[in-house]
Design goal:
The complex is a heterodimer of chains A (565) and B (99).
Chain A lengths: L10 H23 L2 H33 L2 E3 L3 E3 L1 H21 L20 H8 L7 H15 L5 H19 L6 H33 L4 H8 L11 H19 L7 H8 L2 H27 L4 H26 L5 H20 L4 H25 L2 E7 L7 E6 L9 H4 L1 H15 L5 H15 L3 H26 L6 H16 L12 E7 L5 H18 L2 H11 L4
Antiparallel strand pairs in A: 1-2, 3-4, 3-5
Chain B lengths: L3 H20 L3 H26 L3 H31 L13
Helix pairs in contact in B: 1-2, 2-3
The chains are: A mainly alpha (565), B mainly alpha (99).
């Protein structure tokens, strides 16, 4: 009587997620069984192969998903062309992030020898001397990516919640692993965790309310119930549905980094190790936007006119607040990582502008925007990870100098155009793309987002978006002027101040030479080929190609957006 | 006793949890507030399952418990690390990044 029927699973459809999560599990075993000196090489290779495999799997699935409009596994895994496109973007950008994480310019990578050691303790110093490395960051990063891939490929809210946690929990840990400025790093993890857990609690309560309303956590069933087609006891209680939708959206907007849920962004982006910041800024945002589009577009089909209007008013408010905070507060920042964090908040606002119409054009614009924004942001953070402080002792030149952490204060970036013209050029290109200057990817992305809003009748919102872009041009261009035209500060005066600054920063990191009297810190740029410069190059080429010959990518995005959600 | 009373209780517990998160200053207490919110959600799930007469809600409660357990592992690790560094678990003392 109780025959068990094994579910039919379309393994091909889940292959991108399986490859990445499987590689994460293998990575944990690598930690246990591979000898220490090989571990790092194996982990990097494993992560790169897995993510490349995920990109290939997305490519192979592309045509079959487009033919049938969706591939489902059971009731909970549901791959649409849009979800698949987001998966492709996330996997490709995560691949580039791994290269930045593996970068060792200046002799050391960006991660602490043992993240569990108390900063400044003897144990930490011994771990550093012994050359220990926290290679667990690679499996953690794979788990997080796996969660992101699942996040956009489900129409079951409980799977959405699980995916949200699978992507968040490793990120909380990764934030705490910086090699230098460890107090800031731990603080970032602390804030991210408390606020992130609060946001997930809101999300799950919203899911509970939607379950109460519709008797299911399956998006199509909830949509039916919203449209009055179901027959559940609590169907009349629209307040349950509206509260539920608002709470779920709040959790997703937290991950997107939209106001008023953006407050964690600047602190966490500043404190986390720069490669992780780049990964968070790009991949988390892409995955969260994918999930948001999915939830809102699905439920949007079931809204009656007044409900639809209410949700749109909320989205308008969020978009306006996000753009305003991102651009206005961003303009007065003095730290490069904080500046890029506010820039990413502003971009979240532009993305939401594209979404207000719940239209196919909006979904297409979002896909292109995420690709353009992702390349420029990842490249920019890769450049940030290469601009370092160098501590020289006495008269010695390169030989007795120590490469320290990143020089993130804007004043230290003055005149680095002379030291590293190519990296500066690439960085300027990323800034121009983020500002939306024609012939870069950012221009077409913004044009697509704003025209989608105009098509949906939201022209005041598009107008505000253009104004916000214009303001943001100011701080992007100011940065370029600073790098190229402002001469580097006088080494004598600035050097002493910077050395003091560096010594304060380094003390927990444990470089003994920092306390000597005759030290000078200068800003130096790691040029020469390294994984990070490869990423910068790839991103720069990508930004130019998307800006000059966007046709093929736009076609792909249009095809993927055809069957929203 | 009508089943809806359990829902009201769930909402009250959730609000207490949220208020704790927003008002208390000790990281551990804040964290307990988050746990209370998750458990209030479980109560809501189970009550709704009773109203609808299906098991989905009860199964979902298990998922939430597992996630809550995983969150405790990561969260306490981070809080303990901060405490060992600064000898304080106050949310106000963690203010190097002022944003």
């Amino acid at each position: 009587m109780n025959d068990f029927h094994a579910p039919l699973i379309d393994w091909a459809a889940v292959s991108p997620v399986l490859i990445v999560l499987g590689a994460g599990v293998v990575g944990v075993l690598v930690e246990a069984f591979v000898p220490a000196r090989l571990r790092r090489t194996v982990q990097v290779a494993l992560a790169l192969v897995a993510l490349a495999g995920a990109v290939v799997a997305v490519g192979l699935l592309w045509s079959s998903v487009h033919q049938s409009a969706r591939l489902s596994v059971g009731d909970s895994f549901d791959l649409t062309p849009f979800g698949l496109a987001i998966q492709g973007i996330v996997a490709a950008l995560a691949f580039l992030s791994v290269l930045v994480m593996a970068d060792r310019s200046g002799g050391q990578d960006a991660f602490a020898p043992t993240a569990a050691a108390v900063p400044g303790s003897r144990y930490e110093e011994e771990a550093r001397r012994a050359g220990l490395e926290q290679t667990e960051v690679f499996p953690l990063m794979l788990f997080s990516t796996g969660g992101m891939l699942l996040f956009t490929a489900t129409d079951d809210l409980i799977v959405l919640f699980i995916a949200l946690e699978v992507l968040s929990l490793p990120l909380y840990v990764l934030c705490a692993t910086a090699r230098r400025r460890r107090l800031l790093s731990q603080e970032a993890a602390f804030k991210y965790f408390l606020l992130g857990a609060f946001a997930s609690a809101l999300t799950i309560f919203g899911i509970a309310l939607l379950y109460g309303f519709a008797g299911s956590v399956h998006l199509p069933v909830i949509t039916d119930a919203l449209a009055g087609r179901g027959s559940t006891p609590l169907q009349g209680l629209h307040v349950l549905a509206i509260t539920g939708i608002v709470l779920v959206s709040a959790g997703l907007l937290f991950k997107v980094g939209a106001a008023p849920f953006h407050t964690w962004t600047p602190d966490v982006y500043t404190g986390a190790p720069t490669p992780i910041t780049g990964f968070m800024a790009v991949c988390t945002k892409a995955a969260a936007v994918g999930a948001l589009v999915r939830v809102l577009f699905y439920l949007g089909q079931g809204f009656d006119a007044p409900t639809r209007h209410e949700v749109q008013v909320l989205l308008w408010a969020v978009a306006i607040a996000t753009m305003a905070i991102g651009t206005i507060v961003g303009a007065v920042q003095t730290d490069i990582k904080r500046l890029l964090a506010y820039s990413s908040i502003a971009h979240a606002g532009f993305i939401i502008v594209a979404l207000v119409g719940f239209s196919e054009a909006g979904a297409k614009a979002v896909l292109f925007y995420l690709a353009a924004y992702g390349l420029a942001t990842l490249g920019a953070f890769a450049v940030v990870s290469l601009v370092r402080e160098r501590l020289t002792t006495g008269e010695g030149g390169e030989k007795d100098s120590v490469i320290l952490g990143e020089a993130t204060h804007l004043a230290q970036w003055a005149g680095i155009g002379r030291k590293a013209p190519w990296l500066t050029a690439a960085f300027a290109l990323f800034m121009l793309s983020m500002a939306g200057i024609p012939l870069t990817a950012g221009f077409l992305a913004k044009f697509g987002a704003f025209s989608a809003a105009v098509d949906a009748g939201a022209w005041p919102l598009a107008l505000l978006g253009v104004v916000a872009s214009a303001i943001s041009v100011f701080f992007y261009v100011r940065l370029i002027v600073l790098m190229v035209l402002t001469p580097a500060p006088d080494a004598g005066v600035e050097g002493a101040a910077a050395a003091e600054h560096a010594a304060a920063d380094v003390a927990p990191g444990g470089v003994a030479t920092a306390t000597q009297q005759v030290t000078r810190a200068v800003v130096t740029v790691m040029t020469g080929w390294s994984p990070a410069t490869v990423v910068v190059t790839v991103c720069a080429i990508g930004v130019v190609l998307l800006g000059v010959v966007p046709a093929s990518v736009l076609d792909l995005a249009a095809g993927a957006a055809k069957f929203v959600p | 006793m009508p089943v809806t009373n359990y829902l009201i209780l769930a909402v009250i517990l959730f609000s207490i949890g949220a208020t704790t998160v927003l008002l208390r200053r000790n990281a551990i207490i804040v964290f307990m507030g988050i746990e209370l919110m998750l458990n209030a959600t479980n109560l809501a799930f189970v009550t709704f399952a009773r109203i609808h007469g299906d098991l989905t809600g009860q199964v979902l409660a298990f998922f939430v418990m597992v996630v809550a357990a995983a969150e405790v592992v990561v969260g306490l690790a981070i809080i303990v690390t901060i405490f060992r560094t600064r000898r304080s678990a106050s949310v106000d003392d963690v203010n190097l990044l002022n944003g």
